[in-house]
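Design request, tokens follow.
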């Protein structure tokens, strides 16, 4: 690394007035506009649009099984119960995403599930508590030889007894908070434009030629220049996070380091993507890399949920989706941190940067 090249690159970015418009003014403006226009899409009714949970169960005792089947039918609409023959089948269905949870009633109740959201956990727990209490009541009635209908609750009574306790839930994101995170994530993708012009303008102004006659190796020049732009990107992300916390009350403080790493990893991977595409496709005024970059940015933003919420499958196809899913889950649930956004994007950064270095280092004309 060469400190002079890093500092020079950083100063050039600070002097470029368009950077302030492109990476600060535009994102903040769109946060206000989209947050205001799409407020109706976001509400605090966390259960209204949820798909019913699929819970598979196995009950060893025949009497308990009959009571469970009768009582669990009252939960239809929130939870769909399916009986399985053994634990192996139930767990296999969870792994294959055909079921959300597996219950085994024996001497005790065993619950195994996929990684549920905070809301899903609370709903499942609320229904199970009420179901178990009703099973105990009915078992007591049968032991005392009372009439079978004694104490049996109706579907309406059962549903009313279920209260989704949200005291320990964090509030869901508002439209402003959603688009604050989405616009930061979207606009750091445009650091690929900086990557595309990283050495193009330097060649035009003769800067690269002057650096090549110094004792510095090509690798040092490339890594130092890239580092200068990357540090600038880190500062941009930091400023946007601080501004969005102040203006839109985005709770970055709940998981600041994790969120920051996700966003700079995304920024770095697209900075490296721009450099790579410039290296292989933007030679001799062909500008192939520029066209590919625009397509990749739009697809990544669309699939990742930058413009509007998308499902988990679509988000999984986008580096931006990895980041948005991880950051939102860290800020608005108590689930364990998801590291795909960090590992995946830093992995892409490393592969693309090293590929560019190898190509440029071996190329006769830099």
């Amino acid at each position: 690394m060469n400190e002079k090249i890093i500092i020079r690159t950083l100063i050039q970015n600070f002097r470029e007035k368009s950077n302030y418009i492109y990476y600060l003014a535009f994102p903040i403006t769109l946060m206000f506009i989209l947050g205001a226009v799409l407020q109706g899409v976001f509400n605090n009714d966390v259960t209204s649009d949820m798909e019913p949970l699929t819970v598979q169960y196995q009950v060893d005792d025949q009497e308990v099984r009959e009571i469970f089947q009768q009582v669990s039918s009252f939960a239809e609409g929130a939870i769909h119960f399916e009986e399985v023959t053994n634990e192996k089948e139930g767990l296999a269905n969870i792994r294959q995403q055909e079921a959300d949870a597996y219950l085994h009633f024996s001497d005790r109740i065993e619950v195994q599930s996929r990684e549920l959201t905070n809301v899903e956990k609370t709903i499942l727990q609320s229904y199970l508590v009420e179901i178990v209490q009703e099973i105990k009541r009915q078992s007591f009635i049968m032991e005392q030889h009372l009439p079978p209908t004694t104490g049996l609750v109706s579907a309406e009574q059962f549903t009313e007894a279920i209260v989704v306790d949200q005291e320990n839930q964090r509030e869901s994101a508002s439209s402003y908070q959603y688009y604050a995170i989405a616009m930061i994530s979207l606009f750091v993708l445009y650091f690929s434009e900086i990557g595309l012009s990283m050495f193009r303008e330097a060649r035009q102004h003769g800067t690269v030629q002057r650096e090549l006659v110094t004792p510095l190796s090509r690798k040092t020049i490339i890594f130092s220049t890239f580092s200068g732009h990357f540090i600038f990107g880190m500062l941009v992300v930091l400023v946007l996070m601080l501004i969005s916390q102040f203006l839109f009350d985005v709770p970055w403080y709940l998981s600041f380091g994790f969120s920051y790493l996700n966003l700079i990893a995304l920024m770095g991977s697209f900075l490296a993507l721009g450099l790579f595409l410039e290296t292989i496709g933007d030679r001799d005024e062909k500008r192939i890399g520029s066209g590919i970059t625009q397509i990749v940015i739009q697809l990544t933003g669309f699939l990742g949920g930058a413009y509007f919420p998308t499902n988990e499958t679509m988000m999984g196809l986008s580096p931006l989706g990895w980041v948005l899913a991880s950051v939102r889950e860290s800020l608005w649930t108590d689930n364990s941190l998801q590291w795909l956004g960090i590992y995946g994007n830093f992995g892409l950064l490393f592969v693309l940067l090293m590929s560019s270095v190898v190509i440029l280092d071996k190329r006769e004309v830099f």
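Comment from the thread starter after seeing the answer: thanks! Confidence is low (pLDDT under 50) at residues 161-169.
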